[in-house]
Design brief:
The chain has 184 residues and is α+β, with helices and mostly antiparallel strands. The protein is built from 5 helices and 9 strands. The protein has a 5-stranded mixed sheet. Strands 1-2-8-7 form a 4-stranded antiparallel sheet, with no helix packed on it. GO terms for molecular function: aminoacyl-tRNA deacylase activity. This is YbaK/aminoacyl-tRNA synthetase-associated domain-containing protein.
Length: 184
Amino acid sequence: MRAPIGSFDNARPAADCLELLTPPVAAAVGGWSGDIPADQLLFVDTDPAIADTAVFTERHGAELLDQSANCVVVAGRRAGETTLAACLVLSRARVDVNGAARRELGARKASFASMDTAMAETGMEYGGITPIGLPASWPLLVDSAVVDTPWVLIGSGSRRGKLIVPGKVFAGLPGATVLEGLGV
């Protein structure tokens, strides 16, 4: 099957590739109950050596820069308590950690979580963290531009492989809040 975006000839329903996904992502895809049918969650097998956005888009299509999203883990702190959350913005944007994310989390201070914390808490590889399969108790902050993108390329939980899903999927994920201006 040909992917709806990018130059991928090997797109398959993610539910048919559970063995290639990390356990939390495989569990989320395998138990999918979102408004979008599970067969619209696509997996493309890719080279982990080119997982970083700039190199990846050079290989698979420059237009992907406007159709890809990055998921980062943020730690918000207030009164000695730390809240971990995920933020999803288009690849051409940066997460407004100290503005929109901090305010939404009700934190006094917010920063990117350490690589070790992000990997340990998500069960995913750094550079492949995806909003599908995150801990259900986490807030998921999604920039509205991601939801408005017809098809979005995101991580698959590992550096090998990517998921391509309709942008509107993200508004229905557990803990999701769609925000204007999260990506700057």
